[in-house]
Amino acid sequence: MLAFTVTATSPPLVSTGGARFKVLAEMFPSFLPKQVENIRDPFARKLASRIERIPVHVSFSENCIMSSVVKPSIIQSQTSPVVLLHGFDSSCLEWKYTYPLLEETGLETWAVDILGWGFSDLERLPLCNVASKREHFYQLWKSYIKRPMILVGPSLGAAVAIDFAVNHPEAVENLVLIDACVYREGTGNLAKLPRIAAYIGVYLLKSIPLRLCVNILAFNGITLSTSIDWTNVGRLHCLFPWWEDATVDFMISGGYNVCAQIDQVKQKTLIIWGEDDQIVSNNLGVRLHCELPDAIIHQIPDCGHLPHVERPSSVAKLILEFIRENCKAEAQNMSVIWILEVGMDLLKVLVNHSRDYSRHVEIKKVKNKLVVFKRRPSQPLSLIPVPLPVGPSPPNTVGVVPPVVDVDGVVVVVPPVVGVVVDVLLVDGVVL
Fold it and tell me: Where are its TM segments located (predicted)?
């Protein structure tokens, strides 16, 4: 059972005393740039030590891409997995403070590097445009995460999350968007730059002075020493030899333009915004709240553009409360439609006749029976027959009326089958 409380020690921005995650000497993965040893932040060092590469097969590359992630220490199925993206030209180390807070609660938490950034192996450089980033993430989800997820996207990662949720709604249960950069029209005029000019701009992008200036804009009142250390964390992935090529490829491809996709988002969404964001105005957060079909918004006072770095406890608490409320709503919405005492063949028939099976119906085995749970309220539906072998009802059949199931907006009528015991036990939690 999940305990929705945050108990981890605050990051160095608030306090350095008694840091629970402090490690004197980490063993870093050999593929990380050697400059990782210069990072002082114990939270960043701890998370860096957990980064690993996993193979992801994509259609646009002959070779699998060894992709960098932080995998959860525990895989559990009580709630949807939480998957953390990062912002523009960043990495999973953005989550150095919030990741351990979420994991402490027992949530299955992933931190994933977006293709072209982070610490994936791109020596054989693939395409790094929007379509490639989307396919790469989808194949990673399909191969490893495998269940509808709570997808968290900060800054430009919010645009990545919206684009992914609209194109692959079956993979996303809910969205969390943090100081979302979703109203810019891609990379704009940068896409028209001559390639040599693009490389000059990208070279400046990884410079320490520019990164320090960005930190001043992004965060409220951090010390110079902290800003320097965070700069070292933020530009660590830029030290790979393929980083410039990957970033230029993204830049000239046009980047993310998701304005037209916002009202297509079907998932319930939590919007988090730092009230003092000097990079993306919180007025745009209010606009986003109005344009998303199903969203709630929370603003964090005395906080800049990256609340998950600056106010990790507040962000973790908001995410956990959002998950808890959705779990309550899901429990209230879920009702047992019928119980089928059958083999796996009928279950396969139900699955095969569903376009979005897992989001609407869940079948669990309880006391040697298959219990069919309905996840969503019924809507105006059409009827389709399911071709099952029909025979005389067995003597012990209870309730010979053909059962009906709502699967992704389609009512599937299951005729009586030899050996099937239909026994409606609960409807909306009421014992019959």
Answer: none
